[in-house]
Amino acid sequence: MKIVFHERYFNSGYSTDPAASEGRLDGIMALIRSEPDQYEIMTPDRAGEADILRAHDKDHLEYIKRDLLLYEIAALAAGGAIMAAEAAYDGDPAFGVIRPPGHHASSDSCWGFCYFNNLSISLLKLFSQKKIEKAFILDFDLHTGDGNINILQNRKDGFKVSILNPLSSERREYLQEVEEYINNLGDVDIFAASAGFDQGIDDWGALLYPEDYTRLGKLMKEYSEKICKGRRYAILEGGYNHEVIGLNVDSFCKGFD
């Protein structure tokens, strides 16, 4: 399975928020690097301004560019999402271990430790290349990805995106909600996940166990293979307990691959 990662994502100097805290990615990458037969690491480049401007307006771009380090890391995160999307389109499931996250970034604003909307930038890149017309996003972060919704739903350019932010507060109902939604999707060209792990049993949400993340990965695998030739990718969003996030990411990827 393809893992998109850049050593610069370890840099926590761009912000003092919890999403940038030092050590946040260490457990994830330690597990990934311990399984070279399972995971292949790919190194992305920065997203270009043209890529970013498909999802954000010029004023927002210039606002982020005021801080050179923040812009560098945020553009690398967007570039990582693009690389994951391109790998998925070519038939290789991919997971982007990227920082900072993005699903709370709208076209002209951002909050929640997000700066550029990585998922939107990556999907709009594929759409601009006429590779996809319809997409499905599973956003299983604890917090609804308002930026994904604001940028990708009700578009006027013909790009159709279905987004599920599960609402169930009981773990079995949560998984059932996801499966029922996917089962009724219809025709889409690619599956994508805003993969936040703060719903974990040992994280803020205190809901999902590692085996539940495996099940989410399997659902995306099984249905993407039925609907869109297996094209699927996921990018990291939330998850704040450094002791368990590596296990949760690995558990998801085991089902997703």
Set down the secondary structure blueprint.
Elements lengths: L1 E3 L21 H8 L6 E3 L6 H4 L5 H8 L2 H22 L4 E3 L21 H11 L5 E6 L6 H7 L7 E5 L6 H13 L6 E6 L14 H18 L4 E5 L8 H12 L1
Parallel strand pairs: 1-2, 1-3, 3-7, 4-5, 4-6, 6-7
Give structural attributes:
globular, Arginase, Chain A, 257 residues, seven-stranded parallel sheet, alpha/beta, 40% helix
CATH topology: Arginase, Chain A
Q: How would a textbook summarize the main sheet?
A: 7 strands, parallel
Order of helices and strands: EHEHHHEHEHEHEHEH
Estimate the mean pLDDT confidence. Answer: 96
Q: What CATH architecture do you see?
A: 3-Layer(aba) Sandwich
> How many structural domains?
1
The proportion of residues in beta strands is 5-15%
For the secondary structure, the number of strands is: 7
CATH class: Alpha Beta
Query: Overall 3D geometry?
Result: globular
Derived from helix and strand composition plus strand pairing, the structural class reads alpha/beta
CATH superfamily, please?
A: Histone deacetylase domain
Radius of gyration: 16 Å
Concise synopsis of the structure shown:
By secondary structure, the chain is α/β, with parallel strands linked by helices.
Notes on the structure:
By secondary structure, the chain is of the alpha/beta class. The protein has a single domain, classed as 3-Layer(aba) Sandwich (Arginase, Chain A). Helices cover 40% and strands 12% of the residues. It contains nine helices and seven strands, in the order βαβαααβαβαβαβαβα. A seven-stranded parallel sheet has the order 2-1-3-7-6-4-5, sandwiched between helices. Strand 4, helix 6 and strand 5 form a beta-alpha-beta unit. The longest helix has 22 residues. It is globular. The protein starts with a strand and ends with a helix.
